[in-house]
Write a structure and sequence with these properties.
Blueprint: H1 5-23, H2 27-35, H3 39-48, E1 54-62, H4 63-76, H5 80-92, H6 100-105, E2 114-122, H7 123-134, H8 136-142, H9 149-160, H10 169-177, H11 182-189, H12 193-200, H13 208-220, H14 227-234, H15 238-252
Antiparallel strand pairs: 1-2
Length: about 260
């Protein structure tokens, strides 16, 4: 069975790494890397992960996103469950930290918009990620709170298979803030309309951690609060931030930040 392009790239990178080590005068390391591509190397990798404890995971996302992930994974020859493990592993070890645009697109308007992507992940990784998310110190350092380990996997899949291709999501945001409709943005950038809606349409609520941080900043200096900057930092549409600040200003008799 021919290798998919991602596997071909990985194989070529392993071979190149072995060549580089050999050229650098490290033949023992080079032979070890070469050995990963042999049957004994495959057996070693299998033993390395023999203690994996599979457990089902349901990752909820809008239908347009789920269809995009399934199609992209099939075209790349990727195993989505293996990517789920990889996402959790990188999150736990600090290698994966989703930025605000990924987080913005991960919020859906209601539970009715969500569909299920079912996969199997290592229970140990899932439990470790869940425990981190429950740790207040970790969440404070992270700067936001994922809804659970499945959300981490979803964001990792978004990073692997960008719904916006080569288009910078910041440009999509700017166009919408300038008054362009979803339909106009879709046509201008050649994107899927559902993907654009995921990014720019207002989402339900900030997480309690995010909301508390915005309130803290507002209390410290309401005049310095800029809704659009906060929307990008916390990964929600700017309308969501503006509504929160308007409620605060109304309660406390301060000038409206959206004026």
């Amino acid at each position: 069975m021919p290798l998919h392009r991602n596997d071909q790239r990985t194989k070529a990178n392993i071979q190149a790494a072995a060549d580089a080590l050999r050229a650098a005068g490290e033949p023992e390391y080079a032979d070890t890397v070469d050995g990963l591509l042999t049957p004994s190397g495959a057996a070693f990798i299998k033993r390395l992960y023999a203690e994996r404890v599979p457990t089902p995971m349901n990752v909820y996302m809008p239908e347009v996103e789920r269809d995009h992930v399934r199609k992209a994974a099939e075209e790349a020859g990727d195993n989505v469950s293996a990517l789920g493990d990889q996402g959790l592993y990188e999150f736990i070890h600090g290698k994966f930290r989703p930025g605000p645009y990924l987080r913005a697109a991960a919020r859906v308007t209601s539970a009715g918009d969500e569909r299920t992507l079912s996969l199997t992940v290592d229970k140990r990784l899932k439990d470790e990620a869940t425990n981190l998310i429950k740790d207040p110190d970790f969440v404070r350092e992270l700067g936001w709170k994922p809804r659970g380990a499945a959300m981490v996997v979803r964001l990792f899949l978004q990073q692997q298979y960008p719904m916006f291709g080569d288009v910078d999501p910041a440009e999509v945001y700017k166009a919408h803030e300038a008054g362009a409709s979803v339909e106009e943005i879709t046509e201008r950038f050649g994107l899927n309309q559902g993907a654009v809606e995921l990014l720019v349409e207002p989402r339900q609520g900030l997480s309690p951690v995010d909301e508390a941080e915005i309130v803290r900043r507002y209390d410290a200096d309401p005049q310095a609060i800029v809704p659009w900057a906060l929307s990008r930092e916390f990964g929600v549409h700017y309308v969501t931030v503006t509504r929160l600040l308007d409620r605060l200003s109304s309660k406390r008799g301060k000038g409206s930040p959206s004026s």
